[in-house]
Amino acid sequence: MTLRLFNTLSGQMDELVPSDGKAFRMYACGPTVYDYGHIGNFRTFLQVDVLRRALKLTGTKVRHVMNITDVDDKIIRNATAAGVPIGQYTARFEKAFFEDLDSLRVERPEQIARATEHIQKMVELVQKLAAVGAAYQTEDGSWYFRLASFPQYGKLSKKDLSGMEDGARVDVDEYEKDSARDFALWKAAKPGETSWDTAIGRGRPGWHIECSAMAMEYLGESFDLHAGGEDLMFPHHENEIAQSESVTHKPFARHWMHVRFLLVDGRKMSKSEGNFYTLRDLLLKGYKASAIRLALISVPYRHQLNFTFDGLIEATNAIDRLRTFHQRLTQGDFAAGENPALQAAAKKAQAEYLAALANDLNTAEARAPIFDLIRTANTAMDQGQLLAGDRDAMLAVLASFDAVFDVIEDRDAEPTRRALEYAEQAGRQADVAPELLARQGLTDEAIDALVAERTTAKKQRNFARADQIRNELAEKGIVIEDSKDGVRWKRK
Ligand SMILES: [Zn+2]
Predict the structure, then answer these.
(1) With contact defined as beta carbons under 8 Å apart, do 384 and 360 qualify?
(2) Average pLDDT, consecutive stretches of 10 residues, N- to C-terminus, the chain (492 residues)
(3) Distance 464 CA to ligand 1 centre (A)
(4) How many angstroms does the Cα of residue 170 sit away from the middle of ligand 1?
């Protein structure tokens, strides 16, 4: 099965096939590590995770590169304000970013590339651009890309750039829409700013040049796909294309994937609106990392997601259904044999699931047949009509679902623990939900009571409640061990 995905560049659905016949080479713009990531950032990283997992599920090898922007205008400004070197400033946020990716079960790309470790590659690219007349140096020692030298500029974002003023320049990394101007490739050193002494002068790279230099370093001059949030299409991605193709005269990335922004409660997320959330904010409110993952991936990447707390509760309930079903299958006793109706239902669900993913990564449509199957199989189990061969078929469908969605195994305790640790270090204990604190502060007697309740629930075959208790205890770092001699528990 071959995935088809909307390509911003071609304006149509295109098949995703490795052009070298070996691995699918993809680049995704990574974070600027100057603050904690918000859920809008993570929606993009999660949707790219869905892409790479779907490719792997359908048998395609992936080579995925992501950059870390660890030098730019904002980082220099914030590090200066904090009175620390930029490396010290960014290290903390880079660590937090990877912890957050782990919390959300986002797979690591095959290659992580830090901007500050590739300065020489960027310098070489500026030199090549200068050699073909696409870059020029200004009196202060900065280098700019000459937009007039690249007539295809605007082909990705389909912007009409007529009336663009030749030689008008912009030197900030991020700039407003429609202000297409010659942009900075290299910024001459300013007093007190971090800079590198190089063949093109003392200074630091602009933001756009890093992605061109590092993508081509690890993936070659022309590769399969480039991904990023929709806000990066212009000017960042347009600039990446101009910088790369001016030198190589080859298509930089053949396929461009853009993830749409999310709204929170129907409005644009912003600090001033009071609807701005980092991942850590949500974990401290007591929501589980798995529910946040599911909520952020269940709306397909090209659709606007309206993030709400009701949506998080829906995701929490959906995960409970998945986990309870999985547990029933793995812990139940089933007679040998197969039920033809259930075998057919499993096959149908699997086919519909894969077809939906293959159709522009439609995660919403991919989920639906799985939950239909769970309903059918639960009814069959209640009636004793699910047999051992059906259990295996159901588990195979769940494994295929989880290869992309990755929410069935309960790994929610660790992200919660990390978030609480962060709250303590950052002096944010006041932001921790009281219910979460209460659950964290369980006495031995309370744990004994819960463990006893779980044993009773299991005897009564109320696996949902038993699981719920086990999960709740796990979230508080309490591990239950079932053995022949009874149930034991310990604090992690
Ligand atoms: Zn980029």
Answers:
(1) no
(2) 97 98 98 95 98 98 98 92 94 97 98 98 98 95 94 90 69 63 93 93 96 98 98 94 98 98 94 93 96 98 97 96 94 95 98 98 98 98 96 98 97 92 93 81 81 91 91 82 75 61
(3) 45
(4) 18
pTM for this prediction = 0.89
Q: How far is CA 263 from CA 118, 260, 299, 304, in A?
A: 35, 10, 12, 7
CA of 185 to the centre of ligand 1 (A): 13
d(C-alpha 465, C-alpha 462), whole Å = 6
Q: What is the pLDDT of residue 485?
A: 65
Close Cβ partners of 109 (under 8 Å, ≥ 6 residues apart): 28, 52, 64, 65, 66
Q: 175 CA distance to ligand 1 centroid (A)? A: 14
Beta bridge partners of 145: 135
259 Cα–ligand 1 center, Å: 14
Ligand 1 center to residue 239 CA distance, Å?
Answer: 9
Q: How far is the CA of 215 from the centre of ligand 1 (A)?
A: 9
The beta-carbon contacts of 233-237 under 8 Å, at least 24 apart in sequence, are 233/8, 233/156, 233/157, 233/258, 234/156, 234/157, 234/159, 234/177, 235/175, 235/180, 235/183, 235/208, 236/29, 236/174, 236/207, 236/208, 236/211, 237/29, 237/156, 237/157
- Where do runs of H (alpha helix) occur along 119-206? 119-131
pLDDT at 220: 98
CA of 152 to the centre of ligand 1 (A): 19
pLDDT score of 181: 83
The pLDDT, as a whole number, for residue 491 is 66
Which residues lie below 8 Å from residue 300, measured CB to CB, with a gap of 6+? 360, 361, 362, 363, 364, 365
- Report the separation in Å between the CA atom of 28 and the middle of ligand 1, taken as the mean of its atom positions: 7
- Taking the centre of ligand 1 as the mean of its atom positions, its distance from the CA of residue 228, in whole angstroms, is 7
- 241 in Cβ contact with 155 (< 8 Å): yes
**What local confidence, expressed as pLDDT, does residue 444 receive?**
76
* 291 close to 312: Cβ distance less than 8 angstroms: yes
32 C-alpha to center of ligand 1: Å? Answer: 10
